[in-house]
């Protein structure tokens, strides 16, 4: 339980971290896209104004009469735009060229607006306002009475647009994204915990099955080992006895050794199948021949119990399969049918060929399987009547192996049964 709690905690942290990274990345992307969209429109307007600005000539006489040095007498004409654009002119030494208050800014505010980046829009805070700023360098100014006058070169041409409304919108969006992110983190933790529990379900089931498998295997191996040990001790108590005198003990030891060998073989088969180490050797075979051979091998066992074997087999039925595994499948199914059918009963084997599949049915008139046991007949070590199954030499692995063989051949196996009436096993294999 402690291991599961630790594993669940780790999975929860990992899942929550993944969700959080995705959420933060999404919020960050949304914020950047919105910022880019808002400022892209402003930057476009500023650049359009910069391209359409004309610096007009101012006569030195007009400038002198107004007490303004000619090199600082600047007027300009701006084409009408959708949003107000402020334009400032600066010398190469970042001194403002102005008439009165340049752009309505004070000296302190102009100090903050001194051009820094050239040709790249940026945002600058001035007082309580935010401005989008674009600086152009080397703007020519003509000073004189006409266009033929001398040329004076201004250091920088600065364009500004108030983006306080856009900044306010981005801050509101940022607040919403932060609150949503906090709520999202809580949801991410909950989702991580839920997914961790869901992910651990097959692990828990697999571990429970493994523990049950080990427990059942230990129990099944302990029984024959105990019997072998007990009878071996009885043999040692009478070392002077002949084999004939102790034949009963020797026979029991041999019987339990065979049973244990069969159990170990079944365990090895299932263990290899679980780890995908057991591969099928598929090649063209004839199912009708395999069924006839298997029925022939079981004929003597059926005669000993006075059971009638009826075989109705179509032919030929060619398919691609592992012949050895099909023999093993039929041995398991026929052995179960004969084992649990009382004397005088009937076991019927039907093998049919259809358009795309072959169907095998083995039906007996045996004791049947109870409805509560029927859903678990393919579980490993599961036996409805354990005492009876042990007396019959069963290990509880046969049907589990049979199911694996059928499924590895991409087929289906189904069991129908009624108590005191009999059992029918249906196997469908693709041609």
Structure notes:
With 431 residues, this protein is of the alpha+beta class. The protein has 9 helices and 14 strands. It has helices at residues 2-52, 60-65, 107-112, 164-237, 247-274, 287-304, 323-339, 386-391, 398-408, and strands at 54-55, 76-77, 86-90, 96-97, 122-126, 129-143, 150-162, 283-286, 308-313, 318-321, 346-353, 357-364, 412-418, 422-430. It has a 5-stranded antiparallel β-sheet with strand order 4-3-7-6-5. A 5-stranded mixed β-sheet has the order 9-11-12-14-13, covered by helices on one side. Strands 1-2 form a two-stranded antiparallel ribbon. Strand 3 (86-90) and strand 4 form a beta hairpin. Helix 6 (287-304) packs parallel to helix 7 (323-339). The longest helix has 74 residues, at 164-237.
Write the layout of secondary structure elements.
Elements lengths: L1 H51 L1 E2 L4 H6 L10 E2 L8 E5 L5 E2 L9 H6 L9 E5 L2 E15 L6 E13 L1 H74 L9 H28 L8 E4 H18 L3 E6 L4 E4 L1 H17 L6 E8 L3 E8 L21 H6 L6 H11 L3 E7 L3 E9 L1
Parallel strand pairs: 9-11
Antiparallel strand pairs: 1-2, 3-4, 3-7, 5-6, 6-7, 8-10, 11-12, 12-14, 13-14
Helix pairs in contact: 1-4, 4-5, 5-9, 6-7, 7-9
């Amino acid at each position: 339980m402690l291991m599961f709690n630790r594993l669940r905690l780790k999975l929860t942290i990992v899942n929550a971290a993944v969700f959080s990274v995705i959420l933060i990345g999404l919020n960050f992307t949304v914020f950047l896209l919105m910022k880019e969209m808002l400022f892209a429109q402003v930057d476009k307007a500023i650049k359009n104004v910069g391209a359409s600005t004309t610096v007009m000539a101012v006569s030195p006489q007009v400038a002198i009469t107004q007490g303004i040095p000619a090199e600082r007498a600047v007027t300009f004409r701006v084409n009408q735009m959708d949003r107000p654009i402020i334009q400032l002119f600066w010398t190469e030494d970042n001194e403002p060229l102005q008439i009165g208050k340049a752009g309505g800014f004070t000296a302190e505010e102009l100090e903050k607006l001194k051009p820094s980046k050239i040709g790249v829009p940026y945002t600058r805070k001035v007082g309580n306002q935010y401005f989008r700023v674009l600086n152009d360098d080397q703007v020519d100014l003509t000073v004189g009475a006409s266009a033929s006058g001398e040329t004076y070169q201004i250091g920088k041409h600065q364009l500004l647009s108030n983006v306080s409304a856009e900044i306010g919108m981005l801050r509101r969006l940022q607040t919403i994204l932060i609150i949503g992110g906090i709520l999202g983190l809580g949801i991410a933790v909950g989702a991580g915990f839920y997914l961790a529990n869901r992910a651990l379900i097959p692990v828990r089931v697999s571990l429970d099955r493994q523990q049950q498998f080990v427990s059942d295997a230990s129990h099944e191996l302990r029984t024959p080992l105990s019997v072998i040990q007990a009878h071996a001790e009885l043999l040692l108590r009478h070392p002077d006895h002949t084999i004939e005198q102790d034949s009963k003990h020797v026979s029991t030891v041999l019987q339990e050794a065979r049973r244990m060998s069969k159990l170990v073989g079944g365990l090895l088969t299932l263990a290899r199948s679980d780890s995908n180490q057991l591969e099928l050797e598929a090649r063209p075979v004839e199912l009708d021949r395999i069924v006839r051979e298997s029925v022939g091998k079981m004929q003597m066992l059926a005669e000993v119990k006075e059971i009638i074997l009826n075989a109705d087999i179509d032919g030929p039925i060619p398919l691609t399969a592992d012949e050895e595994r099909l023999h093993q499948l039929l041995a398991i199914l026929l052995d179960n049918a004969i084992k649990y059918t009382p004397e005088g009963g009937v076991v019927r084997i039907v093998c049919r060929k259809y358009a795309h599949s072959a169907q095998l049915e083995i039906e007996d008139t045996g004791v049947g399987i109870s409805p509560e046991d029927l859903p678990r007949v393919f579980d490993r070590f599961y036996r409805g009547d354990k005492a009876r199954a042990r007396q019959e030499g069963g290990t509880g692995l046969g049907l589990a192996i049979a199911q694996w063989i059928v499924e590895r051949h991409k087929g289906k196996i189904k069991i129908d049964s009624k108590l005191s009436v009999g059992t029918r096993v249906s196997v469908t294999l693709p041609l």
